[in-house]
Design a protein that fits this description.
The chain is mainly α and about 180 residues long. The protein contains 6 helices and no strands. Among the domains are: about 35 residues; about 40 residues. Helix content is about 65%, strand content about 0%. This is Troponin I, fast skeletal muscle. One of its GO terms (cellular component) is troponin complex. Belongs to the troponin I family.
Length: about 180
């Protein structure tokens, strides 16, 4: 299906949309900053500490401390409500998944763990000896395997009649068995 808009027109529209979005984003930031300053100027009155006696300063500090305690209690209550709501949302999501019958499986990553790390994880601090599993494996040299099996190139037509029948198969079996049995 062919698009009715050319690529250059698409690019132009995309750039215009991005420019408009950037302007609105900048305006939103400025509006938020102005709203914040307006709110703070309403809520916070400037402190006049000049010309106050020691007892008046102490009273002012007690008053400010009480206000801080009230705000801290409100913050704690709101935080507790928020945590309760997030737990409730999580439980409801699980119930919805149960009702659907489909479970979301998390993507699993393949983790490579060495034998030492696995033993350390299982045994904890008891594991002191490093275990090399490859040390116990039998080593095979290529040169030895090539020497053991000499390849004989011969005429296949030779002894065809001798190898035919059951006696011939037995001879082939015995011949194949003898080099590896040594």
């Amino acid at each position: 299906r062919k698009s009715k808009i050319t690529a250059s027109r698409k690019l132009l529209l995309k750039s215009l949309m991005l420019a408009k979005a950037k302007e609105e984003w900048d305006q939103e930031i400025v509006d938020k900053q102005a709203e914040k300053e307006r709110y703070l100027s309403e809520r916070i009155t400037p402190l006049h500490t000049s010309g106050l006696s020691l007892s008046q300063l102490q009273d002012l500090c007690r008053e400010l401390h009480q206000k801080v305690e009230i705000v801290d209690e409100e913050r704690y209550d709101i935080e507790a409500k928020c945590n309760h709501n997030t737990r409730e949302i999580k439980d409801l999501k699980i119930k919805v998944l149960d009702l659907r019958g489909k479970f979301k499986r998390p993507p699993l990553r393949r983790v490579r763990v060495s034998a030492d790390a696995m033993l350390r994880a299982l045994l904890g601090s008891k594991h002191k000896v490093s275990m090399d599993l490859r040390a116990n494996l039998k080593s095979v040299k290529k040169e030895d395997t090539e020497k053991e099996r000499p390849v004989e190139v011969g005429d296949w037509r030779k002894n065809v009649e001798a190898m035919s029948g059951m006696e011939g198969r037995k001879k082939m079996f015995d011949a194949a068995k003898s080099p590896t049995g040594q």
